[in-house]
Design brief:
By secondary structure, the protein is α/β, with parallel strands linked by helices. The protein is built from twelve helices and five strands. The two termini are 38 Å apart.
Length: 298
């Protein structure tokens, strides 16, 4: 499991890190001393779980969760608090809090809660994998099935673990648009033109199109950052993993993937802001998907 800790109390952060690392319960990919300082690093590193303090100045735990959800974060939260107010606890559970860790922090309680949440997380992921395998098998055995460009792109995004991310639909739509152009060149146009073309399909005024094109850009960047984190994690676990070997050097700047791997391996390091090359990703995806569409596997 990949954890991010948000707490304005340095002693609490230090104790939680120690419990997780010494108990071999996962890796700490980042920490922040306030909700405001946590937003950007969480969105760029996409942890599995966030351990977050309920009461913090400026932006409390619940407000921080709301901000992250609005910006597309889909990870899980575990609340840390010494508050016993039933209304506040109830509000936190309504926001999809998995569990509460009470202050003062107790090692046994923390280990027990993290074990339960990680088991639940892994079970859910296993069930989703089984479901996808069944659906893929049914599709492959259907003689009348036909793989469209959208199917191929979705399959590639699924390999990177981002098919359900907030910007995955935008990416699929972009490749579908590029493949439908009359001008059959493999060189993609400027990103600004692509975003505005996609935005114009649902918006009409110039202001709305500009606003939506910027939103599309942010969604895509966030989704690509998740792909980079997923592949870096695969590389740390198994450097010979076929998805890691194929996608990392082709779709991304491999130096950035290596830097992410070092961050994951070294829990004491501070996560650095990733350099995301959106044009390279979309260009390679377009060429890759086009080749697979023209030459489907037999």
């Amino acid at each position: 499991m990949r954890y991010f800790i948000v707490d304005d109390d340095a002693a609490s952060r230090r104790m939680l890190k120690q419990i997780i690392v010494e108990g071999d319960m996962g890796v700490i990919i980042g920490e922040a001393d306030s909700g405001m300082n946590a937003l950007e690093p969480i969105l760029s590193s996409d942890p599995d779980f966030i351990l977050i303090d309920l009461l913090m100045p400026t932006l409390d735990g619940i407000e921080t969760m709301d901000q992250l959800r609005k910006q597309g974060f889909r990870g899980h939260f575990i609340m840390i608090s010494q508050v016993e107010n039933k209304e506040m606890v109830g509000e936190a559970y309504e926001k999809d809090i998995e569990f509460f860790i009470h202050k003062p922090i107790n090692r046994i309680e923390v280990q027990s809660i993290l074990k339960k949440t990680s088991e639940r997380f892994l079970l859910k992921r296993s069930l989703l994998t089984i479901r996808k395998s069944i659906l893929n098998f049914e599709e492959e055995t259907n003689e009348e099935s036909y793989r469209t460009m959208k199917d191929i792109v979705s399959s590639i995004l699924n390999d990177m673990g981002i098919v359900g991310e907030v910007g995955s639909d935008d990416i699929v739509s972009i490749i579908d648009f590029l493949s439908s152009r009359e001008e059959k060149t493999m060189q993609i146009p400027p990103l600004k033109d692509i975003y505005e073309e996609l935005a114009s399909q649902s918006k009409f005024s110039s202001a709305e199109i500009i606003k939506e094109s910027k939103a599309i850009e942010q969604r895509i960047r966030r989704t690509i950052s998740v792909a980079m984190n997923n592949l870096a994690t695969l590389g740390v676990v198994d450097y010979t993993n076929p998805e890691f070997e194929y996608y990392s050097p082709r779709y991304f700047e491999f130096a950035e993937i290596r830097a992410l791997m070092k961050t994951i391996e070294d829990t004491a390091s501070v996560p650095k802001k990733m350099k995301i090359n959106v044009k390279k990703f979309l260009q390679v995806l377009y060429v890759d998907a086009t080749e697979k569409f023209k030459h489907p596997p037999k």
